[in-house]
């Protein structure tokens, strides 16, 4: 089946819905293709808020937000992206308000704001109240609001369609191919421009806050075409996930006054970040928690968690501003934050790296500015390098809104200027072959077993603390798993809603993302942001103040080629030089 639209958007989370909305506002015919019903997208799991220097509660300025973003990213952040972001997010938050997003309010009726890790006033002097929030359901409210706006603008939704291939010929993206869950049919979508916004790949780890659908599909498809993935070594572990489960416990819980405590009841962050303590950036807090556990001060039966303490806060704050996480703790752990300490542990949360783009979302092919004509990306799937080596809390929702809007606007503008390029004679061929090979395979390997081994080994060898021998071993583990994957078969030959088939295909995408990530991490011989090497403790600006560009070696399976891209440091309203991190 064939379809034609000016602009295609893959993914219906915050970035995808914002891109689709602005492409439609730009006069384009738009289709949004998504694995899920839009309001089930993973943006709905985001709890804490959107950082924006509104100054509703105390003095704040976009320059301070820009500084925190760059410093939090350990100076790997591209400063043009940080400046655009810190300015644009203020307008974008007010735009969401005008669309109807029900933000929490101050007594005066303004958008409420609260503290969040790594956000400071006056260039790092003290914590600032910058996070705009809707209780602890901010992401959910964004999805509802943007979906309604897209319905109003006439966006066409193709729900439960799984993209299996991008059609890129002669340097231009001409459309994509997708598998429809309900029928098992392959559909071809012809377009002038395509925006990729399908989220991250956190399911490569055993303990993760990511939904089951976040398997890095479009990153893998891009990578398989010999195109680069940028800064894949930088993966953020959120310090607070519910113990054993990984379900996110918002940073807002600490913004409201929650305190991390070890088995001795000690507020241990006073030793690691004496200035802003529990509100230090996520990489610092995650490492601090793991250090406490390693040194024997963990809690729980396996001593592999610590506590978050809210018991000193008023009940109305816990059950009002933190209603969702309170309900989750009661439901899944049987712990009531009003009276109990809640067990948490770091959880794989967010990819700083991904498909490289410029500040308008245009996908890049190398470190010198080459690009794929008509192809854009935004959100966690993209790497405009706003987040550098470590994303600040709240900047993910802001990233979705700001750069989703810019990508949608740019895609519509490009679509107005060009005609449809010809599609190849048989665009569905590779997708059909991949799915049929899995359906008809007679191999002895099981996708679920390989996936479990991948997740456990990545957690152990490329987790919060890393070292060369472990990561070198992980390179070989991934190669072995990739070889075994070639012998995977599925027991269910049906075509409609065949979840076993879909999960087997997703495993191939996950293995690609793990391959690029591990090779990039092994190659970077320093510690920076979320990438912490026990054999290279120091940040090395002389040799490593640059972005990694990982390319799949199409001539040698299992091999990764590494290139680089300069960090944008100067030439903006403010230029912040690398300096030591003290919180």
TrEMBL record:
Its main location: membrane. It catalyses: a quinone + succinate = fumarate + a quinol. Gene3D superfamilies: FAD/NAD(P)-binding domain, Fumarate reductase/succinate dehydrogenase flavoprotein-like, C-terminal domain, succinate dehydrogenase protein domain, Succinate dehydrogenase/fumarate reductase flavoprotein, catalytic domain. It is a peripheral membrane protein. Pfam families: FAD_binding_2, Succ_DH_flav_C. Coiled coil: none annotated. Its EC number is 1.3.5.1. It is found in: Membrane. Pathway: Carbohydrate metabolism; tricarboxylic acid cycle; fumarate from succinate (bacterial route): step 1/1. Keywords: Electron transport, FAD, Flavoprotein, Membrane, Oxidoreductase, Transport, Tricarboxylic acid cycle. The keyword Transmembrane does not apply. Residues 6-397 form the FAD-dependent oxidoreductase 2 FAD-binding domain. Its cofactor is FAD. PROSITE patterns: FRD_SDH_FAD_BINDING (PS00504). Residues 451-583 form the Fumarate reductase/succinate dehydrogenase flavoprotein-like C-terminal domain. It comes from the Bacteria. Belongs to the FAD-dependent oxidoreductase 2 family. FRD/SDH subfamily. This is Succinate dehydrogenase flavoprotein subunit. It comes from Deinococcus rhizophilus.
């Amino acid at each position: 089946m064939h379809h034609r639209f000016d602009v295609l958007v893959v993914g219906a989370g915050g970035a995808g819905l914002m891109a689709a909305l602005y492409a439609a506002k730009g006069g384009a015919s738009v289709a949004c293709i998504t694995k899920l019903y839009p309001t089930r997208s993973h943006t709905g799991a985001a709890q804490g808020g959107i950082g924006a220097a509104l100054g509703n509660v105390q003095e704040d300025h976009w320059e301070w937000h820009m500084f925190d973003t760059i410093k939090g990213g350990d100076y790997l952040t591209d400063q043009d992206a940080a400046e655009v972001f810190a300015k644009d997010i203020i307008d974008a938050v007010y735009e969401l308000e005008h669309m109807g997003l029900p933000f929490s309010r101050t007594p005066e009726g303004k958008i409420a704001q609260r503290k969040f890790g790594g956000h400071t006033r006056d260039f790092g002097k003290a914590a600032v109240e910058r996070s705009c929030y809707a209780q602890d359901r901010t992401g959910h409210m964004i999805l509802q609001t943007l979906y309604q706006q897209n319905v109003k603008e006439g966006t066409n939704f193709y729900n439960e369609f799984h993209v299996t291939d991008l059609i890129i010929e002669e340097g231009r993206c001409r459309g994509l191919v997708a598998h429809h869950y309900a029928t098992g049919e392959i559909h071809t979508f012809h377009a002038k421009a395509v925006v990729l916004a399908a989220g991250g790949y956190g399911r490569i780890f055993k303990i993760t806050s990511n939904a089951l659908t976040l398997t890095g599909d479009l990153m893998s498809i891009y990578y398989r075409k010999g195109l680069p993935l940028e800064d894949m070594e930088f993966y953020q572990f959120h310090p607070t996930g519910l113990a054993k489960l990984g379900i996110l416990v918002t940073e807002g819980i600490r913004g409201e006054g929650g305190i991390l405590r070890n088995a001795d009841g000690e507020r241990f962050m006073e030793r690691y970040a004496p200035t802003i303590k529990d509100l230090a950036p996520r990489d610092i807090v995650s490492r601090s928690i793991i250090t406490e556990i390693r040194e024997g001060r963990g809690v729980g039966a396996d001593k592999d968690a610590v506590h978050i303490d809210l018991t000193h806060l008023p009940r109305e704050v816990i059950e009002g501003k933190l209603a969702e996480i309170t309900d989750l703790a009661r439901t899944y752990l049987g712990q009531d934050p009003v009276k109990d300490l809640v067990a948490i542990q770091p959880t794989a949360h967010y990819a700083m790296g991904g498909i490289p783009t410029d500040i308008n979302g245009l996908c890049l092919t190398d470190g010198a500015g080459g690009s794929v004509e008509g192809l854009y990306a935004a959100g966690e799937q993209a790497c405009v390098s706003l987040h550098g080596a470590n994303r600040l809390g709240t900047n993910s929702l802001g990233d979705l809104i700001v750069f989703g809007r810019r990508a949608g606007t740019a895609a519509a503008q490009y679509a107005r200027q060009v005609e449809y390029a010809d599609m190849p004679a048989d665009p569905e061929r590779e997708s059909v072959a991949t799915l049929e090979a899995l359906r008809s395979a007679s191999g002895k390997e099981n996708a679920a077993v390989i996936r479990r081994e991948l997740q456990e080994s990545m957690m152990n060898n490329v987790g919060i603390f890393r070292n060369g021998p472990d990561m070198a071993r992980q390179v070989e583990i991934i190669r072995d798993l990739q070889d075994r994957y070639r012998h995977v078969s599925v027991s269910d030959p049906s075509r409609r809603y065949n979840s076993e088939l879909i999960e087997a295909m997703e495993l191939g995408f996950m293995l690609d993302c793990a391959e690029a990530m591990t090779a990039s991490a092994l190659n970077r011989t320093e510690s920076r942001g979320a990438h912490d090497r026990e054999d290279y403790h120091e940040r090395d600006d002389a040799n490593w103040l640059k972005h990694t560009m990982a390319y799949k070696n199409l001539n040698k399976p299992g091999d990764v080629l590494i290139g680089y891209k300069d960090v944008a440091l100067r030439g903006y309203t403010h230029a912040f030089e690398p300096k030591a991190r003290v919180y």
